[in-house]
Amino acid sequence: MLFDKEQFFKGLTEKNEPSVTDKLRKAVVGIAGCGGLGSNVAGALARVGVKKLIIVDPDEVVLSNLNRQFFFIDDIGKFKVDALCDNLKRINPFVEIEKKWLKINKDNLFELFKEADVIVEAFDEAVEKSMIIDSFLEKDEFKEKYLVCASGVAGVESSNTIQTKKFADRVFISGDFCSQSCEKGVMANRVLIAAAHQANMVVRIIAGELDP
Q: Which of 3, 33, 79, 81 is close enough to 122 for a disulfide, judged by CB 3.0 to 4.6 Å?
């Protein structure tokens, strides 16, 4: 290792506003799903200096994932959480990562992410997105946490159609809110824009700069 931990973070975050860096270095973020959205959100958060990421996904990397997800050809066949952990450590060797090879459901959601300050919803299926939002809003256990979701990242429409909006108390959604991947295809061009929106919202929450 060329740098010790403090040297590394000093260099990594030298472009950050110091008060924001201090908050990021204490923050824990949960990533529910390590596909196109989740893997790229995790990459962005590792770069800004988040203390810890909890990554949860049951799937393995396949060839079609490479068109939009933060994986490489030699990751094919690995569990996504293992491959993502290795790739994140190549960016930031000091980020703490807790990885879980599990399918998330309403019964294990809180236990998986109980340490997280913010949870990122990064599922592919609408039914899973609804499950995490409903569980988050219904259960008192989540009342001190925030949820950042995505809806509508498909196609080749203008990037300006992707926005981040407040959906409910402590819940934000990024996307165009209409496109379906089954209808318009899904590629890196818009997935990465939406993932960046989600990552930016996470940083805004941690920094205490929420939109009114």
A: 33
Residue 166 sits in a domain whose CATH number is: 3.40.50.720
Q: Say if residues 176 and 202 touch (Cβ distance below 8 Å).
A: no
Alpha helices in 25-79 (DSSP H): 36-48
Q: Establish if 108 belongs to a structural domain.
A: yes
List 147's β-bridge partners, or say none: 119, 171
Look at residue 211 in the predicted model and tell me its pLDDT. Answer: 59
pTM of structure: 0.95
What is the spatial distance between Cα 153 and Cα 191, in angstroms, rounded to a whole number?
Answer: 5
Do the beta carbons of residue 113 and residue 68 sit within 8 Å? no
The boundaries of the domain holding residue 48 are 17-207
Q: What is the pLDDT of residue 154?
A: 85
Contact 199, 207 (CB under 8 A): no
Question: Tokens for 89?
Answer: 């450590």
- Cβ-contact 22, 52 below 8 angstroms: no
SS3 86: helix
Question: 126: helix, coil or strand?
Answer: helix
Block mean pLDDT (10 aa), the chain, length 212: 87 94 97 98 98 98 97 98 98 97 95 97 92 93 95 87 94 87 78 97 94 54
